[in-house]
Amino acid sequence: MSLSAVPLPIEAERVVEPPRHIPLGPSFELIEETTWEALAASGRQLPFAQPVLVKGGVKHWPAFRQWSFEHLATVCESGDSKAPVKFTDGLVEQGVTKGRPFLPVAPYLRELGKAALKPADPEAGLLPVAELARLRKQPGERFHLNWGHMQSFRPTTLYLAQWDILEHFPALRKDLLIKSLWPGRRLTWEYVFLGPSNTVTGLHNDFPHNWFCQITGTKEFILFPPDQRAHMCPAKKYDWGATLSDINVSRLHEQPREEAAFEKAHGFYARVEAGDALFVPRRTWHSVVSREPSISLGMFGLTPSEVATGGAWATLRDWAHHLRLYAWGNCTCHQVLPGRGGQ
Ligand SMILES: O=C(O)CCC(=O)C(=O)O
Predict the structure, then answer these.
(1) Splitting the chain (343 residues) into consecutive groups of 10 residues, what average pLDDT does each group show?
(2) Domain 22-313 fold
(3) Is there an atom of ligand 1 within 6 Å of 201 CB?
(4) Which atom of ligand 1 is closest in space to residue 219's alpha carbon?
(5) Distance, CA 331 to ligand 1 centroid (Å)?
(6) Does ligand 1 have an atom closer than 6 angstroms to the CB of 288?
(7) Is 205 near ligand 1, meaning CB less than 6 Å away?
(8) How many CA atoms lie within 13 A of 228 on its CB side?
(9) Is the shortest distance between the CB of 206 and ligand 1 below 6 Å?
(10) CB under 8 Å to 120, separation ≥6 — which residues?
């Protein structure tokens, strides 16, 4: 059987038994939603201190018009670039990092394209669409999310996350109007997230500011400013450029200590739809659940001084890690084999 004929496990496994206990979780308020026009009129400059969702913020990009699962599948089949790439094996933030499958991308993207034809249930998710519409009329109102949703499925295990697509296909860069989001002198680093509905990216923060752009599909984001760190249960597990959390948003009901800490947090909720751009300030804790098959792009942007400080610190930590002096056997970059340290 050829590889492309093997069915890919992109559907999340549904959990049918009724949950014994549904956590209350943190309190939230809606993220500030705005437009480029309103931001320009206000004179506000980057980097913003709080997360901001620019509705339709990348609708002017060629990528928004052209990038579909089929289009990217065709690109991935072009030239001599059919080589398999390393996927993530679902969550890398919590628990033991497992081996990551190497797969060709095009058949996976075609499966996602088929799945994207099925409409998503507007009532499912962390916040039903009707409740979101009500909250938009009540700015500042605090609310809780439906954590029962997180117990209704096991996160999809096959997720092509944080893939540096432009390294493989540099011609795609012309579809991204990067300067429209990151003007001025900044070093940017772009990567895509390609996955089905019900992918879960666990709670973590990144050291640079990030413009997160949604090309197709919808994702739910929860975000917590750096001052909420006391409630985030920072993990000892190592990841380049990020701080991870021991809170597993998918299994919160099984983590009494983490659940108690997390419940004290106050955060922002954002529903990021196709064409939106979300600004995630540096060190903002966040976790992401996809509602629909998605093509998303993250763009870290660093000034030369941020490269010299944050970048140098991350690089030093990385050297120490690879010299086995720091967090060896407890990281997202090396697979842990039974009875052995990281490999
Ligand atoms: O879209 C996702 O699943 C994760 C995005 C994210 O965590 C990031 O861009 O920092």
Answers:
(1) 52 77 96 97 95 98 98 84 60 59 86 93 94 96 96 84 90 96 92 93 94 98 98 88 91 95 98 98 97 97 83 80 78 61 44
(2) Jelly Rolls (2.60.120)
(3) yes
(4) 1
(5) 18
(6) yes
(7) no
(8) 25
(9) yes
(10) 197, 218, 291, 292
